[in-house]
Amino acid sequence: MSTIELLAPVGHREGLLAAVTNGADAIYVGGAAFGARKEAAFTNEELIEVIKFSHLHNVKVYVTVNTTIFDQELEALKEYIHFLYLNDVDAIIVQDIGVAHLVKQMYPDFELHFSTQMTLHNTKGVEFAKQFGADRVVVARENTLEEIKAMKQAADIDLEVFVHGALCVCYSGQCLMSSMIGARSGNRGACAQTCRLPYELVDLSSGETLDSNVGDFLLSPKDLKTIDEIGELIEAGVTSFKIEGRLKKPEYVATVVKAYREAIDQYVETRRVKISKQTHADMDQIFSRGFTKGFLFGDKGLNWMSADRPNHKGILIGEVVNVKGKRVTINLKSPLEVGDGLRFVGLNSKDQGLQVQKMFVKGNDVKLANPGNVDLDAPFPVSKGMKVYKTTSVSLAKRVEVTEKSVPKIDIYGEVSAKLGEPLKIMAWDNDSNMVTVETEEVFETATNTPLSQDRLKQQLEKTGSTAFSFAYININMDEGITMPISIINKIRRELLEKLEKSRTQHHAGRQRREIQPTVSNLDTTTITPQLTVSVRNIKQLQTVLNHNIETIYYKDIKTLKKAVELGTAHGVTIIPQLPRIIDDSEIEQATQIIESLPLQTIMLGEYGMYHALQNKGYTFLTDFAFNTNNVQSIQALKQLGVSQVTLSYEINQKQLRGLVKQSPLPTEMIVYTRIPMMITKHCPVKLLNQQEFCRMCLSTPFGLRDRKNKILPLLRTGNCITEIFNSQHLILIEFLSELQKMGVQSFRLEFTNENEATMTQAIHAYQTALQTGKVDSDWLAQYKNSDDYTKGHYHRGVCI
């Protein structure tokens, strides 16, 4: 039980005070760069103060370096890693495999946490992380309690699990929707929260829009809350209990951290958790889109989604019972104070909110209204029957407010020796086994006038002032009739407290800067003939492609892989399994058995679990786009794992491509025709609307999501009922094939999604002609441009830096 950790989010100084004061064991923070929350960032100078303050209060500090990295950032990244290491950071949280590789090269003793952005969601993936050198894995939010138990039993590695806060509808590290819509990449810390926007479900075969009686926010999850299940998570082997919310207000951090501190301590002491109604109410009030226990405990559909609204709901406190002009009468179910925030919700009207400035009970101006009728003025139209929610609470904010002055002092203890002819000697210690000793250069002399009393000496030593310390006990062994100047006593007290502070704040003494030499080697691409590959999802698409002189075809459906290989062999075509980027333990076992039963040499990997399952079995490995390969350091790391070719990221632009391909130590493939996969999710919008657990409607009917701009994003099922959401437009880079060849890209892929046979055939012919002759079929390309079914993706614009 001693290893259990409560991990709090910190995005500002006030949040730091709230986390530390309310019982966090560790905090996670981000710097000005390389962190997945750009708006919650500290400068290097601020980070130094965060680390010192946290360590002083016995709280660990983990710094997020959990974004994808571009080559032009690698030198700055190295300097940042040096900075974090030398300034006593306890652990570094990473997404990019290249960054992880770099950290292990530079500082093997630097504790390394693999972020949830690495999409580690199965047992084999966690085993891979441990083998690679990770000290901890932040598991996917989609994992169940049973899956987490299996991970812990198999790998015996620290597991960090999100227990409270906002949820992502997409598997972390795999979301490109924000990136594609506005060049704000979630993988780069600038998510635009496109999942919180309204969408309509559309039957693509008929064009019909399906009615929704649950709301329009079909991709907006509720907030996670597992405080009552803390015991089950502890027993499952969870090491660190992570609260989401670096962008939240300090009141949120204080409220949630305090509640989970209480729950964890209760279970450790009594083997049960019993949280008060008031604590639950405070958590509801401070921020909630409605709460779910998440996939952790089997919630899905309406139990998981906040389809009616994408933001803070507040607490229902009453209903409008009368309206006369601007004066509104609310029948309250719970107290209301001046300064509280309210939201009025009607069936056929837009929500409106206000902060209470004045209110009246029976005509009397009041500051607090108890349950019953209360009158107030509304600056917007209100109708009778509207529900009224309290969105902010003045009293709660006051109860949880933390300032610099309210941070509790640290108890210390002292033994003092004051003897004639000897220096003043002080030994002090704290409850965490830190101990320091100091003594003056001067010695005590015989007093000629008024001697120094023991009470006066104690009084001076206990003047700890604005420091973090307070003497809980001090014992003085002192001769009578002696004296020493008060200025010397004050000076030695300051020295004592400074030494004790240094002892508490320095967690990793002796760290020194270490330089490493680059190990990347360039690949000679001058003699490589570019090839065209095709990716298909099923037998029907495969049969279409087999007739078009494509030598290498990637095949996605593992269940029909045997038939695909047989067809490929009959046509003299190489079939390469294109493994899923989301795959659970049972599917890994099944896929491994199928692959090993077939005459296969090459495998395209979608995630790290299948790599671990198949390594050392003689296969040639390729990596797919899901590995977010943006820099040469990542390619070098993959090469050392035995990978032979990488697929370049969708988020890399022309200029970055030119430098990366030139330096790459492995052959590169680029997807030049597809619908870019915006999201991959365990949530199914179709099931949400029809509210049937096993609907299977997607197998017979094609669906899509219509966004606010009337664009339709196709939905496709993959694997074990996993939903992929695709861009409304096709990525088409046929105009840049010659340029990409000159850069050194060796392979060009057409990745088919929901295209029909004719569309696939035309695309293959267009790209084959372009590669063979250097000429682009302008009529074919014009069809896409004229129908607004064309995008160059990030080829020119790139994503935020």
Automatic annotation (TrEMBL):
Pfam families: DUF3656 (PF12392), Peptidase_U32 (PF01136)
Matches recorded under PROSITE patterns: PEPTIDASE_U32
Organism: Turicibacter bilis
Protein name: U32 family peptidase
Domain Peptidase U32 collagenase: 388-504
